[in-house]
Specification:
Layout: E1 2-14, E2 20-27, E3 41-44, E4 52-66, E5 71-83, H1 88-104, H2 107-120, H3 123-134, H4 144-155, H5 170-178, E6 182-187, E7 193-197, H6 199-212
Parallel strand pairs: 1-5
Antiparallel strand pairs: 1-2, 3-4, 4-5, 6-7
Helix pairs in contact: 2-3
Length: 216
């Protein structure tokens, strides 16, 4: 019986609804001969802002025997599940900086990446997907803390003053109001200004989520 040891590592993503799908495959040589283990993470970090991060939750070394064909196949399968981190936006800023300085500015790496992508799915496909994703890009440049404040206000519409909103101060709320994602209201009985989320604020969160979790 012929033995085949596959050079690829296959990544299977577990969805929130419990379903699984084959997300990607990488050669062992590209991974430096190392198979990712439990707790390891990889990020989808493409272009400007937002990222999808997946964590390894399963690791299988498959031995498949096909007696009819006289083959014995060995291969690694890695199961990953998407996670959301509070520091995700800040991490992506670093990812983006490295990309711009080391990849975009390096013609050799750029040509190699384009060649590999075109062989896998077609370079035009990735360009089109990137253009579509850019249509949903956030436009107000909120940092991680400002985004958390805005999300909390959307989820807790009864929390109207700075002292009832975690991480929020009057200056933060004034900044959010300046870009139009919240608006000031009347002062409460305690003398503190009340704030509410605008339609643009909800639209910005929707843009962030769409852009961040874009599936290529």
């Amino acid at each position: 019986m012929s033995i085949i040891v596959d050079d690829k590592v296959y990544f299977i993503e577990r969805q929130k609804n419990g379903a699984y799908w084959l997300d990607a495959s990488f050669s062992l040589s590209d991974l430096g001969g190392t198979v990712p283990g439990f707790g390891d993470r990889y990020a989808l970090a493409i272009h400007k802002s937002g990222t999808a991060i997946a964590e390894v939750v399963g690791r299988y070394f498959l031995r498949h025997i096909d007696e009819a064909a006289g083959l014995e196949w060995y291969v690694w399968f890695i199961v990953v599940q998407q996670i959301v981190l509070q520091e995700q936006h800040d991490l992506f800023r670093i990812f983006s900086t490295v990309y711009k300085e080391d990849i975009r500015g390096n013609p050799v790496k750029q040509k190699l990446a384009a060649k590999n992508e075109s062989e896998e799915r077609g370079f035009e496909y990735w360009e089109e997907q990137d253009r579509e994703r850019e249509k949903h890009a956030p436009i107000h440049g909120l940092d991680a803390r400002e985004e958390r404040v805005l999300r909390f206000m959307i989820a807790h519409p009864d929390c109207l003053t700075a002292d009832t909103i975690p991480e929020a101060g009057e200056k933060t709320l004034e900044m959010l109001a300046k870009v139009g994602v919240v608006r000031p209201g009347a002062k409460a009985s305690r003398g503190m200004r009340e704030w509410s989320v605008t339609d643009e604020g909800r639209a910005e969160v929707k843009r962030i989520d769409t852009y961040r979790h874009w599936k290529f």
